[in-house]
Amino acid sequence: MRERIARWYALGIGVFVVGLAALFAERQNTGPVPDATPAATEAAPVVPPPDVPPDPAELRRGRAVFEEQGCLRCHRVAGEGSPRSPLDGVGSRLTPEEIHAFVVADDAVRGSLSPSVARAKTEFAEMTEGDLGALVAYLAALR
User: Fold this and answer.
1) What pLDDT was estimated at residue 109?
2) What's the rounded Cα separation, in Å, for the pair 32 and 140?
3) Which of 6, 21, 81, 87 could form a cystine bridge with 72, CB 3.0-4.6 A?
4) In b/e form, how buried is each residue of 71-109, taking b as 16+ CB within 10 angstroms?
C-alpha cells in the first residue's frame, strides 16, 4: 500500500513540476513569433570581414617609435616602464582611431586628460604619419 501511495505521490509531483515549467515558459516567451518567410530573411546582417593580422614589421617599427618617443616614462607595457598608466590590453579596449586620438591628445579626448598630459602629448601630433601609424598599430596589437 505504501508503494502505491509513493508512486501516486511521485507522479503527482512530476505532473506539478512539468506544469510549472510550461507556465514559466509561456510567461517568458510572450513576444511575437518572428516571420520566417523568405522576405524576412533577405535583409541578413552584414558580417564584417575577419581582422587582418598586423604586419610584424609594422609592429616592430611601432615598438621602436614607442621607445624612441620615451613613452615608457609615463606608460607601462608588459611590466616595463612606469606603473602609472599601463597600456597592456589597450587594443582590446579602444579602437585604433581612439588610440590615435589619445596619442595626439585630440580635441575629442583632451577633456579627459589632465592639462599637463595634454601638453606633453602635443609633440606626438608632429610625428610623421608613418611613425604615428606604426605606433598606433603597435598599441592596437596590445591585447
Assistant:
1) 86
2) 42
3) 81
4) beeebbbeeebeeeeebeebbeebeeebbbbbbbbbeeb
Angle between helices 129-140 and 96-103 (to 10 degrees): 120
Read off the pLDDT of residues 2-50 as tens digits, 9 standing for 90 and up: 889 999 999 999 999 998 888 877 777 765 555 555 554 455 566 555 5
Q: Could you give the percent of the chain with pLDDT greater than 90?
A: 44
Q: What is the DSSP string of 1-48?
A: -HHHHHHHHHHHHHHHHHHHHHHHHHHH--SPPPP-SHHHHHSPPPPP
The residue behind cell 609633440 is 123
Residue 104 to residue 121: CA distance in whole angstroms: 5
Does this model's pTM top 0.85? My answer is no
